[in-house]
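Two proteins follow. First one:
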Amino acid sequence: MTLDHGLCSYKAATANVGGLQARSKRLRPHPRRAQTMTDTYTLYGSYASYYTAKSRSHLRKKGIPFVERLPSENRFREHVRPTSGSHRIPQLLTPNGEVIQDSIAMLDHLEARFPELPAIPATPKQRIFVHLMELLGSEGLVGLAWRHRWLFEENLGFVKADFGRSFRPQGSDEELQKYGSLIADRMMSYGLPPTSEAIRAELDEQYLAVLKLLEAHCRHYPYLLGGHPSAADYAIMGAMHAHLGRDPAGLAFMQQHAPRVFRWVEHMLTPDVQSPEFHDSPVAYPAEDDIPETALAFIRHLLSEYSEPFVLSSLAFQQAMAIENPVAGHVLDAQTDQPKLRPTVVSFNGSTHEHRADAHAVWIAQRSQRYFHSLDSATQEQVIDTLASDNARALLTVPTKWVSERRDNRLTVGERLQR
């Protein structure tokens, strides 16, 4: 199932509802910038929103002046949404009035303007790790997080009230339930899978596998890449905070089985860069382009469990573009920012698959693929050897002759690359 940014399929669900790389020095927590109304960003989102959690954490850790507002605010309806052409959250309103939708596009925009405490490391193995985590840690885990939210009955009262507050922040209990139920019922009508005790137990097993690997890592490191926060950390905040770290069933399970992960989530919500537990850890990416073994174990798990659809989408995109032969600048779908392309037949692991490319996932996957293809062959092999995953090799080596780019909040075809 394709899941939209923020509150799942936010457009349909809300219709008619209430009308530079640090290496050797220790960095102190970022100084507070003087905030004025002329230099403050506005983040439109919700605490129930998967993707807002990523952007909120990034803004806070970077010390970027911002305020957060709900999508029920008049300015969102009257200016932000019409400007972006999207109902999805989060959306970012810049001090000069520009509107950016999509958590990764927002991160790139902010990184270019606030280079201190960079979210993307500069060295090859670490950068590939981070770009893969942008895909696997966010888009890979969204299905688990979404099913865990909706298939556990104990979550529903809380989640509905949470949605209700997005539209009636000071509403009565009855109003919260009314508006929250409208949104929740529509989300659950989009193809919610059946639930049973056995299905819920399987979901908990999948969740536990993730938690065990993160718990082992959080014993020794404050962030996935040592002492420095990165886009890899922000990528998993959607799953680990907005859904699994707030919904009652997921939260209780995390607290019981992975208290260090729970504490990591708490710290990721603060603007402090150094946590009390790791106050003496240098705020730096590991030297010599190293990646902690516990972080590699985590990403290998994600590659094993969640990467195949992204390999198929990447292959299907190349196949579809070869058939259509569009010109550079062609908009894949003017009506939606996350289209699926028509089915094509692709081969992977000795089997053929009819697959519709998820254009948004392809755009994210190409962040790692295009960077990987820019490396010399010796460095490419070092990256592959470090990841030690056949699925990593399959994903990274997909050709990128046809490029997906994001322009004006729509996915387009870029200049064809000659390889």
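Second one, unrelated to the first:
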Amino acid sequence: MLLGYVMLATGLTGMTIRDAVIPIFKYVKSRKASVKTVNVNPLEQLTTGYTALFENLGILDTSKGDWVQCSAFTRKKNYLLVKFKLSDTLSCEDFIKHKKKIEEKLLINYDGESYKNKIFIYNDKGLMHFRILNKKIELVPYEFRKTPKHLIPLGTDLDDNVVYWDLKKDPHIKIIGCTGSGKSRQQNIIINHIYHNIPGAPLWLMDFKEGIEFGAYEHTQNIASYADNLNDAPYVLQSIKEEYERRIKLIKESGQRCFDDYIAIKPNSKMKRGFLIIDEFADLMDLNDKKEGYDAIKELIDLGRKLRAAGLHIVLGTQRPTADSIPSSMKNNITGTVGMKTENEFNSRLIIDDVGCELLEQSQAIGKLESKYTFFRSFYIPDSVMEDTVNQFKKKDKAEVKASQKKPLKILK
């Protein structure tokens, strides 16, 4: 449905209907500087202005039957939304290709300072949408608020609504972005919410940067298994596979088909939703060279196919997506996606099947959740919040944790 969330620069605009038209005429040479606005329908006024702008930029040619019509104009708290009907000779992609030129022309003077607009251009229900931010979008600090156990908050959209990861609709999720995109913070938001919202939820954590991201959680009560290097990764994967088999046996014995059905008839069960969370999962490909006949990515895909029924969920994060580490079979089984800033359009398409991520700023994301695209700002989670969580759920005996997490596994023999 969405073929391009396109972001242009940074911006403040503070636009009214008249403000939206003035800059268009200002930069169209074929128009006079003075424009009559009395007794003119606002939508007709916008149509005239945008038609002149797009023709001046070479996007459309009215002499050849090209036309645009502004069908709706809405001013929200954070943005201005203009919807367009397009002639059959035009498509939304024609405008996305000229996004930089459009941005240059829509340069607004606001409070004595000039800003370039931040515009999202996308197609929805047969209409082209221009969503123009009219204020700087600040990050919202993360504060724990209890939610239904299948909902995990990720951030807020442009209407200040909370965007959730719904475990029932997308049982597993990928969070992918380049260095500095905010990927690690997004993962920590998920982990912190799990600790507080699902007391006792087991966590299987892998952090292949020697524990830089997840090391602080290693000795907390929720950790079922932990790896801070590739050699220990098979232990963690085997551990969650064993937990899956244990749960499925209990579920079948109860006459139910899945975790949700089981909990419905046994609301006081100690069985909690569990999570396998891997930072830099693409590094698992290196295991294929170290262990003959072992395919870690295939293991992940297989887990993604099975774990949902047992109330177990996967969170994958990486800074370096490749076609090998994100095959189509992984997309089919790990459906939820959070695409953060990428280095180029190729990586954006690899992650969300579309362009747009290459133009995001830090902590901004395009989520492909429940098969729908959603732009949102990730919550900001201070180090102090993560430290408080670790201290609250810390396990008393660190030596005991190490012993319980590692044991000989058949997979290594």
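SUMMARY FIELD: The chain has 13 helices and 16 strands. The first strand starts at residue 68 and ends at 75.
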